[in-house]
Amino acid sequence: MKKIIFIISIVVFSVRLNGQISTENVKGKVSFVSSQNIYVKFLTTNGISTGDTLYILSKGKLVPALIVNNLSSVSCSGTVISSLEILVDDQLIAVRKNSVPKSVDKIPETKNSYTEILKDSVTIVKKPALSQQIRGYISAYSYSGFSNTPAPNSTQLRYTFSLDAKNIGNSKLSVENYMSFRHKIGDWSAVKSNIFDALKIYSLALKYDVNKSTQISIGRRINPKISTIGAMDGLQVEKSLNKLSIGALAGYRPSFADYSFDRHLFQYGAYLAYSSVTAEKYSESSFAFMEQMNSGKTDRRFLYFQHSNSMIKNLYFYSAFEVDLYKLKGDTVTNYLAQNTFNLTGAFLSLRYKLSKKLTLSGSYDGRKNVIYYESFKTYLDLILETAMRSSFRLQADYRISNNLVFGLQTGYRFLKTDPRPSKNLYGYLTYSQIPGLNLSVTLSGTYLESSYVNSKILGATFNHDFFSNKLSASLGYRYLDYKYPESLSNTVQNVGEMSLFMQLSRKISFSISYEGTFEKQNKYNRFYLQLRKRF
After folding, report:
1. DSSP 3-state of 197
2. Predicted structure pTM score
3. Where are the domains of the chain?
4. Which of 105, 136, 142, 290 is most exposed by smallest CB count within 10 Å?
5. How far apart are CA 390 and CA 369, in angstroms?
6. What are the angstrom distances between the C-alpha of 242 and each of 143, 183, 236, 239?
7. Among candidates 496, 470, 461, which has minimal Cα distance to 482?
8. DSSP H or E segment with residue 381
9. What is the pLDDT of residue 471?
């Protein structure tokens, strides 16, 4: 009962609203990765704010990956909050909030207004209520790695297509799609054996607006109201009642093996969401029930809670919880008994507080467990029953010494029950932006990591320079890494060099090239990244 009260208390419903709020997933690409900071490019960062969380798609679910620290018109940088590896060209997703006013007392007479009052006439030409908006991109990406070790050299190619088409032909029909095709040169047999090992369809859905308050979608789609549940192949219906939204969904989970369609993984559920927004504050909450099955048998049954708000000035809060309601007791192969339970299997909280114009504090807690799917993974049940907590804490402080000089510290603590002792890390950075006379930005950083298996020290420096009104951007970086292995009393020293060049060839076409070289006492590793991207 205490658990129920605790979780329900997180779901806050407050603040009167003079409009409605809707959300949409905005996709960006990782353009550069430093030791702790990630840089992400968007078509536009309108609707994204410092303190927002960016997500990465992992196994069909949106996992919190990044806290936004700095913004420009088309890019942002932030701090990693996920244990998942984030690489250049990976897609990160922001859940953007769109405020739609209920009524307008007077239409402003400006050039950017949706009406145009013609001279010497009372005729008013209005923009259609449903206006077509199409945007997206196509990109080609290559990754080549070679070394002086016995490991074979390889080149991997990746092609990506993304489309977000709203109100096609000024109609009520919209389409969203994001897919990629990846393969290694000289290994086409792997593609022939199973096309879905190379082709990944992350979203492909049609959405129809029945009216202003009712939406229906069919296909593969991630619902932003319950984003971390992941993508689903099927039907989703949502009805909005002012600030309240009610939804139902039924369909299939993507295959665990290759993310293709799997008719055995049926699931269904319902959710209730509440959004409240003003000019300075917002509060969003979601509550969902999900039943997931495999070949007609219950695989997992759980509740899902999601809440975010900025109810206190300069304070940004995000939380997500999952509570399992179903478990099996006994031998799951020959003799078992299904039981109801109330087990908190997922907990993630993130808090960011802007103490002043110069000082910002943030922290997060990750208390997610390994989830048990009884039917999908019953062969490996003994292994999965080791539900070790991924308990981790992160704290960060950023201090703006001057307009161009920023200093930050981050520390983390992680304790897995299977580890002999906890892991600890400390990271610090100093960034000087736009050095006078040089138009150069410099970041110095240092990391110390202590775990059960390795202790490491990392020192780094990165230099960035923009040319020709940001149409050409170049960066140069160096890192010194010293790994010590307590069990074997040995160590590895690496010197890592990084170079990258980004070119805006035209308004919608860009090209980038990056190189990373890792040099050890005997071994040398080289990696090249190339990307050509066309927006439309």
Report:
1. helix
2. 0.70
3. 128-212, 231-388
4. 105
5. 6
6. 48, 47, 19, 10
7. 496
8. helix 381-384
9. 86
